[in-house]
Amino acid sequence: MNPQLVENYLVNISFATLMIALIIYWLNIAFPNLRILAKVGTILTLTINFCLAASLGLRWLENGYFPLSNLYESLIFLTWGLTFTHLILENQNKSKLIGAINIPLSLFLISFTSFVLPVEMKKASPLVPALRSNWLMMHVSIMMISYAILILGSLLSILFLIIYKGNFYQNNSIEKRIGYKNKNQINIGSYATINQMNILERIDNLSYRTIGLGFPLLTIGIIAGAVWANEAWGSYWSWDPKETWALITWLIFAAYLHTRFSKAWEGEKPAILASIGFIVVWICYLGVNFLGKGLHSYGWVS
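Predicted structure:
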């Protein structure tokens, strides 16, 4: 069978499975006592992850290079990274919220690659000389995985803010209810308040741990990119738009982790910083390639 046809089938299966998984995870939020839903959601996510990995593997075998040279391939890889990270976090934390926020984003990305990108941008083409290096696999794959982890961590912070602000309008003394500073003085009036406090703390801690995992990978990816840039262009740093925004991304999440580690900020403020990081990651990943040309625009926008 034609490898390209099989690859398309695998991506289409991923799209259909994501639609089903979206319903399952949201039903799991609505009916938390139905444990079968959580198991079904995990199985569906495993299926999606396998199909995306198989499609990338077929593309790798067919073209002879790691499939991260254009927008289509990077979007497929990013979605694979999101579902892979989702599975790891879900296994460690047993949280239904991870799938509830990741699956809609993954579905959007696969929908974009399948229905919006022109056919020409989906086709593999010979690598330009600068990309014919083993650094392609190391640098780009690490950067994409770090993006996936940081995106999920930032989404959890956005979810934290949504719940936090919703509670704020219900009760102006939200800080006392969450109890970040004065837990011993909390006057809890209802079970609902306790539940909201626990949910916020779990989301906040999960976001912190997730971003803490993605940040070292981002650092390694940037360093690997600098070494590759020196090998390809004779300079470790050229202030290319992609390099500049990668540095901005690094600084945003470095500031987030510093405030959390030093306990200078807790609760809302670091969550706002991580939410800004969510936007910056997308600018770094997609925005600079669409808004301006640079040394990193190979195979993206002509």
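Summary: The CA atoms of residues 293 and 302 lie 9 Å apart.
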